[in-house]
């Protein structure tokens, strides 16, 4: 077995009959798994990608969290002393933080223990408004309309002056050392969800930011269960248990009828978190070496087993007998996500709101063979999407059907012919109505699955006589170009961090252009519906507004929504307590390594 057992650096010495006798040190428990995409930064302000968010969520803490085993999703206090007070009009939110929580030790604190206080959350929220940090989450807070903060940001932008964190605004202030309050211009019944996300609302100490400056993303210092121990960019991330982490005990309430989770909750109840000492994350972009590293027992968890190996690992979605015999465990769960291809709505070829531009996007969508994509590329690990709203959240309707998943080449060709996308020069390829060549440019990544999807795109487009070219670059480069509006088309995934469909409708909201809204779709009717549903409590009126909004996104087709993905994770026999809550990224603190089982299997047979 290819595994290095790390021994604790400290040894307990006992005096026995006047002599010192060393006791054997306990091996450090290390949980190892891999990311398919490299991290970008460990600073909560600019983060937008899933994998950086995952790491940061284990280091920084938000006031609230989602209960790990609860279903349906349930919020509970994290660093907060209790659930916050909410005004009847959903405009004022008052949080009280537990005294006695401390940041991990760091040189920025000059040898002092640094307690978490309310001002840390006020400061951390303000950082999203500071132009210096180029927040990828600013659109969420600006949409929430925290009183005074957007105005403060605009003033500094106009004056070209540094952001003044000491300016007190009506919408965000401390009431005492442990209490802060947020006030909004409009009602926001689901605003609390954002305060469960440590990768966005995690408390960052001002001293750390001022100490490290522009390199603060390389030096994450939080109050969470882990701290950054080692980091080789785009290669390896090692987290270790934070010695300053307070006493938090395992206490979960699994759903009724789930015997496996009930057994875990009973066995782990009362144990101090986190259960492992280290988390070691390798960046392995290609699916085959990532899968082989699990088979070779170099990884303890295979998160989202690559679709290419689904028929080997779990044929017919049942764990393969050879893996079951070894004691490998399987956990299968739907993601609250969408896999989309967006059309740049400001692009002169595929963008625009005129009937012929809408017809082009709809025709392209109709020409995409989703059944083939799911069967051949995704290996059955997805379901066709009918709308931009993903499963597992409020607003998702499993019975809703639309043109989004329809495959009909004849209709696609008819639409193109009707609107003037025909072959004008006899070369066999369609041209634009004005006679210019029609050539699609699709941004993509160099990994194996992306290459397979590219092949399908090429077949689908060639079948309706449309040329397509591929712009290959790594994900961070494509993200930068996308935010700047420089891509014609790009295939990406979008995951929800909270159990609500607003996350997905935000992809089409005009003011979110360059942030969540990569397509840069901006339709006044849609914007009005999005704003309407955002302030309504859950109920029939909100559901009607959300349905009308998603139908507009289907009609104008700024996004071709392909599928909702299903993830299957495998764990080695010595991993215990494994479970996935799609709204809890930092699952590591709830998972354990059975050292006795690991040692038994490590011995030569």
- Strand fraction: 15-25%
The percent range for helix content is 25-40%
Computed Rg: 26 Å
**Category by helix and strand content:** alpha+beta
**Count of helices?**
19
What would you call the shape? globular
Mean pLDDT over the residues: 94
Number of strands: 22
Distance separating the two termini = 11 Å
Most strands sheet: 8 strands, mixed
Low-confidence stretches: 1-22
Overview of the molecule:
By secondary structure, this protein is an alpha+beta fold. It is built from 19 helices and 22 strands. Strands 13, 14, 15, 16, 17, 18, 19 and 20 form an eight-stranded mixed β-sheet that branches. Strands 3-12-11-10 form a four-stranded mixed β-sheet, with no helix packed on it. A hairpin with a 2-residue loop joins strand 8 and strand 9. Helix 11 (355-366) packs antiparallel against helix 13 and helix 17 runs antiparallel to helix 18 (540-556). It is globular. It starts with 12 loop residues before the first strand and ends with a helix. The relative contact order is 0.15. Residues 1-22 have low confidence and may be disordered.
What distinguishing features does this structure have?
single chain; 605 residues; alpha+beta; eight-stranded mixed β-sheet; four-stranded mixed β-sheet; 19 helices; globular
């Amino acid at each position: 077995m290819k595994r290095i057992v790390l021994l604790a650096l400290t040894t307990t010495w006992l005096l026995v009959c006047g002599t010192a006798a060393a006791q054997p040190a306990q091996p450090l428990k290390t949980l190892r798994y891999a990311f398919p995409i490299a991290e970008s930064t460990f600073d909560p302000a600019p983060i937008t990608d899933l994998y950086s968010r995952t790491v940061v969520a284990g280091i920084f803490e938000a006031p609230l969290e989602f209960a790990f085993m609860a279903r349906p999703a349930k919020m509970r206090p994290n660093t907060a002393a209790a659930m916050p007070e909410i005004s009847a009009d959903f405009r004022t939110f008052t949080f009280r933080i537990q005294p006695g929580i401390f940041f991990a030790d760091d040189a920025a604190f000059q040898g002092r223990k640094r307690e978490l206080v309310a001002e840390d959350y006020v400061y951390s929220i303000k950082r999203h408004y500071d132009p210096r940090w180029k927040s990828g989450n600013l659109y969420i807070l600006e949409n929430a309309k925290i009183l005074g903060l957007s105005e403060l940001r605009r003033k500094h932008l106009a004056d070209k002056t540094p952001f003044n964190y000491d300016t007190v605004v009506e919408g965000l202030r401390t009431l005492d050392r442990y209490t802060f309050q947020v006030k909004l211009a409009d009602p926001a019944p689901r605003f609390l969800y954002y305060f469960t996300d440590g990768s966005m609302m995690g408390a960052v100490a001002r001293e750390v930011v001022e100490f490290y400056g522009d390199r603060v993303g390389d030096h994450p210092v939080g109050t969470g269960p882990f701290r950054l121990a080692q980091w080789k960019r785009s290669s390896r991330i090692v987290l270790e248990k934070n010695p300053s982490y307070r006493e938090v005990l395992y206490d979960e309430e699994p759903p009724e009828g789930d015997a496996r989770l009930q057994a875990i909750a009973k066995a782990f109840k009362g144990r101090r978190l986190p259960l492992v000492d280290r988390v070691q994350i390798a960046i392995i972009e290609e699916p085959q070496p990532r899968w082989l590293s699990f088979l070779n027992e170099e990884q303890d968890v295979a998160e989202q087993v690559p679709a290419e190996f689904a028929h080997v690992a779990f044929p017919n979605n049942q764990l393969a007998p050879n893996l079951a015999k070894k004691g490998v465990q399987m956990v299968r769960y739907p993601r609250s996500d969408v896999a989309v291809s967006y059309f740049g709505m400001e692009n002169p070829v595929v963008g625009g709101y005129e009937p012929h531009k809408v017809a082009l996007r709809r025709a392209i969508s109709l020409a995409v063979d989703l059944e083939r994509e799911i069967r051949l590329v995704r290996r059955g690990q997805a379901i066709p999407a009918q709308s931009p709203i993903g499963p597992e959240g409020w607003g998702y309707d499993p019975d809703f059907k639309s043109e989004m998943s329809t495959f009909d080449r004849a209709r696609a060709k008819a639409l193109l012919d009707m609107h003037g996308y025909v072959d004008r020069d006899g070369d066999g390829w369609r041209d634009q109505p004005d006679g210019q060549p029609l050539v699609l440019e699709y941004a993509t990544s160099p990994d194996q699955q992306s290459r397979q999807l590219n092949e399908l795109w090429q077949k689908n487009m060639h079948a309706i006589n449309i040329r397509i070219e591929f712009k290959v670059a790594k994900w961070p480069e494509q993200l930068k170009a996308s935010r700047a509006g420089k891509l014609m088309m790009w295939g990406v995934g979008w995951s929800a961090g909270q159990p609500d469909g607003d996350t997905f409708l935000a992809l089409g909201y005009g003011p979110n252009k360059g942030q969540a809204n990569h397509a840069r779709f901006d339709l006044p009717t849609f914007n009005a519906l999005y704003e309407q549903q955002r302030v309504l409590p859950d109920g029939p009126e909100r559901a009607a507004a959300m349905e009308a909004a998603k139908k507009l996104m289907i009609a104008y087709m700024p996004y071709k929504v392909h599928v909702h993905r299903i993830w299957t994770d495998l764990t080695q026999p010595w991993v215990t307590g494994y479970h996935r809550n799609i709204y809890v990224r930092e699952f590591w603190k709830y998972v354990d390594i059975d050292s006795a089982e690991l040692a038994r299997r490590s011995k030569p047979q």
